[in-house]
Specification:
Blueprint (H helix, E strand, L loop, with lengths): L6 H9 L4 E5 L2 E4 H17 L7 E5 L4 H12 L3 E4 L6 H10 L2 E7 H7 L11 E5 L8 E2 H4 L16 E7 L7 E6 H14 L7 E4 L6 H13 L2 E4 L5 H11 L3 E4 L1 H8 L5 H4 L4 E4 L6 H10 L4 E6 L8 E3 L10 E5 L3 E6 L12 E7 L10 H7 E3 L12 E11 L5 E6 L4 E3 L2 E3 L1 H10 L3 E11 L3 E10 L7 H9 L10 E4 L13 H8 L3
Length: 517
C-alpha cells in the first residue's frame, strides 16, 4: 500500500527494475538504480539526525540528484522544500528561514551565492553540496549517501507532511503550501488516470519542480512506471529537440511556453510521437490551441485548471474541445468542484460564483500563517448538518460559471477582475481578442487605478515573430471587436514580458511598471 511518496519508486523498482525512470542530458537511470540512491540518501539523512517532519531544502537545477533528494527526504520521514533555482539569494534565504529548513542540498556554485544570507537561517544545521569539494563544514553528496545504513522505521500514515511548495503571495512574500503524502499520491493517481498514462509513456518535465504542475510530472509518471526526461530549457527549440530525441509522448506546459512552442518548426519525429499535450497555469489562447492541434494532429489536447492549494481541479475532455473550447471542464477524478455565492450557498447554472474544491487533494494550509489559511481554507459548503466534524475545502478566489451540463467556465481571478466605467471586465476576455489579431506573441491586460474610471485598462504585449508592432494598428484592430469600455487606454510594446519563476506572466510587476503610464 502506498502511504508515502517514495513508495512510488520502490514499487516501480520491484515491478520493472530495469525500466528507464529518469533521463537528464546523456544520463539515464532505471527504477532499481533510482530506488537504490533514494534509499541510500534517506538513510544518510537519518544518520545526520533528521527527525520526522523536519524540513530539507532542495536548491538545485534539474538533475538525477534533485529527484533523489526529494524522494529520499520522504524515505527519511522528512518534509522536502523544493526551491526554484531561478530565485535570488534573499528569496531563497526567506524560504529557508520561514519553514526552518534543517538540511539544505545544493551545489557549490549556488552555495557561494547564498553564503552571505545563511545567517538569517538559524535552524539550518547541515549543508549537502554537489560538485567541488565542500568547505566550511559542508558535506559532500557522496559522503551523505549511506547504502549500508537501514532506512528509519516508525509510524507512517499518508496524512504525514510531505512537502512545502512556495508560491507567490499577495503580500509580496512567498507563502508555503503544505502538502501531505496523501495529497501527492492521490494527485498522481488522479492525473495519470485521465491522461491514460502507462509504463510506455515518455514524459518531458519542462516546468520547474518547485511548481506543483512541474512536480506532478514526476508523480504522474512514477505512479505508472513511466519514463521522465528532465530539462532546464533555455530556448523553446530545446524542448522541441528533446521531444524528437526521446520520442516524448506527453508534454505539459503553461501558456507562455506553449505560445513559444507553437512558433517553432517541429520535425516529424517530435510531433508524431506526442500522444497528448496539456495546458495548465492559465488560459491558452484559442489561436495557440489551433496551431498546436495542427502541429500535433494525432495528439489529444488536455486543457487543465488547478491551483497549488489543491494541485489540480478540472480538465476538459479532449472530445469536448471543439464543442466548448472556452471551458475548463469538469472535476478531475476524486475531486468535487462547487460554484459558491459569497454567502456560502451553491450557485445556479449560469450564475457567477467562486470555485471551491473539496476532496483528498486539498492541501493542509499555509505554513506558519494561520490568518491566510483561514481566508482560503474554510468549511466545505453543503455538508449535512448532522456531521459533527469539519471538512475543509479550498476557496480558490477564482470566479467561474457552470452550465446546465456541469461544464465550468473561468471568468477571472477575483483580484484580477478589472472594474472600469461601472463594468466588470475579465482580462482574459481582452487577451483572447488581442491574441486573435495575430499581431502579438504575448499579451497581458491589467486594471490600473484611475480617479475617473475606477480603473483604466492597460495592455502589455510583445510582437509576433519578432516583428515591429505599432500600438495604433493593434488598437484599430481591437476597436473592431471590443466595446469602447473594454478598449485599452494604453498599449506598452516590449520585446519580452516579465515572467515569474514559474514561467507565468508576472502581472504584479507589470502592474507596478505600468501604473504611471
Amino acid at each position: 500500500m502506498h502511504t508515502h511518496l517514495h513508495h512510488l519508486i520502490a514499487d516501480a523498482a520491484a515491478r520493472t527494475p530495469d525500466a528507464p525512470a529518469l533521463t537528464v542530458k546523456d544520463r539515464t537511470v532505471g527504477y532499481a538504480e533510482l530506488w537504490h540512491d533514494v534509499a541510500a540518501f534517506g538513510a544518510g539523512l537519518a544518520a545526520l539526525g533528521l527527525q520526522r517532519g523536519e524540513r530539507v531544502g532542495v536548491y538545485l537545477d534539474k538533475r538525477v540528484e534533485t529527484v533523489v533528494s526529494i524522494f529520499g527526504t520522504s524515505a527519511a520521514g522528512g518534509v522536502f522544500v523544493p526551491v526554484n533555482p531561478q530565485l535570488r539569494a534573499k528569496q531563497v534565504a526567506y524560504i529557508l528561514a520561514d519553514c526552518d529548513v534543517r538540511v539544505l542540498v545544493t551545489t557549490a556554485e549556488r552555495l557561494a551565492l547564498l553564503r552571505d544570507e545563511l545567517g538569517q537561517c538559524p535552524a539550518l544545521e547541515h549543508l549537502v553540496v554537489l560538485g567541488t569539494e565542500p568547505a566550511g563544514g559542508a558535506r559532500s553528496w557522496e559522503d551523505v549517501l549511506a547504502p549500508d545504513t537501514p532506512l528509519p522505521s516508525g509510524p507512517r500514515v499518508d496524512v504525514d507532511l510531505a512537502a512545502i511548495l512556495y508560491t507567490s503571495g499577495s503580500t509580496g512574500k512567498p507563502k508555503g503550501v503544505v502538502l501531505s503524502h496523501r495529497n501527492l499520491l492521490v494527485g498522481g493517481a488522479s492525473v495519470s488516470e485521465y491522461l491514460h498514462n502507462d509504463a510506455d509513456d515518455v514524459i518531458l518535465a519542462a516546468l520547474p519542480l518547485s511548481f506543483d504542475a512541474g512536480f506532478s510530472q514526476l508523480t504522474t509518471a512514477f505512479t505508472v512506471g513511466a519514463h521522465v526526461v528532465l530539462v532546464d530549457y533555455l530556448l523553446a527549440r530545446d524542448v522541441v529537440a528533446l521531444c524528437a530525441r526521446h520520442r516524448v509522448t506527453g508534454l505539459t506546459c503553461v501558456p507562455p511556453l506553449w505560445i513559444q512552442l507553437a512558433e517553432q518548426e517541429w520535425p516529424a519525429e517530435a510531433s508524431e510521437s506526442l500522444r497528448y499535450f496539456a495546458n495548465t497555469g492559465g488560459r491558452m489562447p484559442r489561436a495557440t490551441l489551433d496551431r498546436l492541434r495542427a502541429i500535433f494532429p494525432a495528439a489529444k489536447p488536455y486543457l487543465m485548471y488547478g491551483l497549488t492549494e489543491a494541485f489540480r481541479s478540472t480538465y476538459l475532455d479532449p472530445d469536448e474541445v471543439d464543442r466548448r473550447p472556452d471551458s475548463i471542464g469538469k472535476a478531475i477524478p476524486n475531486a468535487e468542484i462547487l460554484v459558491v455565492r459569497e454567502d456560502g450557498t451553491l450557485c445556479d447554472d449560469g450564475e457567477e460564483g467562486e470555485l471551491v474544491h473539496r476532496g483528498a487533494l486539498v492541501a493542509l494550509g499555509y505554513w506558519n500563517d494561520a490568518a491566510r489559511t483561514a481566508e482560503r481554507f474554510k468549511p466545505a459548503p453543503g455538508r449535512d448538518p448532522g456531521l459533527m466534524t469539519t471538512e475543509l475545502a479550498v476557496f480558490s478566489g477564482d470566479a467561474v460559471t457552470r452550465d446546465a451540463e456541469g461544464f465550468l467556465y473561468f471568468v477571472s481571478r477575483k483580484d484580477e477582475m478589472i472594474k472600469t466605467s461601472g463594468y466588470r471586465v475579465s482580462p482574459t476576455e481582452i487577451e483572447e481578442v488581442v491574441y486573435g489579431t495575430g499581431l502579438v506573441r504575448d499579451a497581458v491586460a491589467l486594471g490600473i487605478d484611475d480617479d475617473r474610471l475606477g480603473q483604466r485598462i492597460v495592455l502589455a504585449v510583445s510582437p509576433a515573430n519578432g516583428a515591429e508592432l505599432d500600438p495604433g494598428v493593434l488598437l484599430a484592430e481591437l476597436r473592431k471587436q471590443l466595446p469602447l469600455y473594454m478598449l485599452p487606454k494604453h498599449v506598452s510594446v516590449r520585446a519580452e514580458l516579465p515572467r515569474s519563476p514559474n514561467d507565468k506572466f508576472d502581472r504584479n510587476l507589470l502592474r507596478q511598471e505600468l501604473a504611471s503610464s
